[in-house]
Amino acid sequence: MSELIQVIKDNHIAKISLNRPESYNSFNREMALALVSALDDCESDDNIRVVYLTGIGKAFCAGQDLKEVTNPETNIGFERIVSEHYNPIILKIYNLKKPVIAAVNGVAAGAGANIALVCDIIVAKESASFIQAFSKIGLVPDSGGSYTLPRLIGFQKALAITLLGDKVSAQEADALGMIYKYFSDDTFEESAYKIATKLAALPPIGIQHTKTLYNKGLCNNLETQLENEKEYQVKAGSTEDYQECVNAFLEKRKPVIKGK
């Protein structure tokens, strides 16, 4: 694993930290490919129930490292950057059965903002901000921003924020419904990680099915979604964890979750 991505696994949680603080965790090719690899590893590791994505230093992620794009020696244009770096990252997070928490510890700009927005639960430090910075340098949104942002906050506000390149504070993001919640700078790390801990303690198969259902629900009609709910409820109801949780409730004890 590249040193540009730090992975710590503990208590069914994989904490993935972007580690280029000197460049505000902007993506170069090595870091992008390392993140894809880390997500692949989380997907295949049956002991991991929750992925917790954050940044090291003052920023969550400043998006693309423009020095790499403008360097003629790298020969990496936007087609390769989008198709080989960002699209795989976005699809990995979206299609990962396990929930992904974005713990936005500072500025999240451009692709960095949109990587956060595709995560399943987004929390932010009070001093953090989100910037759709593309229009300021003559580009269009990528990394799924034109898909996720309007679904989170509505078409009009999403388009205006993107066209104008407005800086959105954590407080504004919370009010818009862009994020789940924000925490004070002093309590952010502890409070954000508590969410991951709480999620990891729940029956993981039901959690995974719930993520899948919500993603399907973005595109399905009601009739199809009702059928999907029935299908996944049957699957969830046949797990050992479901029976254990019911028995524990009736016996007034704490359930022993096995992920089966």
What's the SSE blueprint?
Elements: E1 5-10, E2 13-18, H1 29-44, E3 50-55, E4 59-61, H2 66-70, H3 78-95, E5 100-104, E6 107-109, H4 111-117, E7 121-125, E8 129-131, H5 145-153, H6 155-164, E9 167-169, H7 170-176, E10 181-183, H8 188-200, H9 204-217, H10 222-237, H11 240-250
Parallel strand pairs: 2-3, 3-5, 4-6, 5-7, 6-8, 7-10
Antiparallel strand pairs: 1-2, 8-9
Helix pairs in contact: 1-3, 5-6, 9-10
Please tell me about this protein's structure.
- This protein is α/β, with parallel strands linked by helices.
- The protein has two domains: 196 residues, 2-enoyl-CoA Hydratase, Chain A, domain 1 (Alpha-Beta Complex), CATH 3.90.226; 47 residues.
- Helix content is 48%, strand content 17%.
- The chain is built from eleven helices and ten strands.
- Strands 1-2-3-5-7-10 form a six-stranded mixed sheet, with helices on both faces. Strands 4-6-8-9 form a four-stranded mixed sheet.
- It is globular, with a radius of gyration of 19 Å.
- 38% of the residues are buried.
CATH topology term of the largest domain:
2-enoyl-CoA Hydratase, Chain A, domain 1
Low-confidence stretches: none
End-to-end span in angstroms?
29 Å
Q: Given the helix and strand composition, which structural class is it?
A: alpha/beta
Q: Helix and strand string, N-terminal first? A: EEHEEHHEEHEEHHEHEHHHH
CATH architecture of the largest domain: Alpha-Beta Complex
Shape designation = globular
Number of helices: 11
Rg is: 19 Å
- Total E-strand runs: 10
Count of spatially separate domains: 2
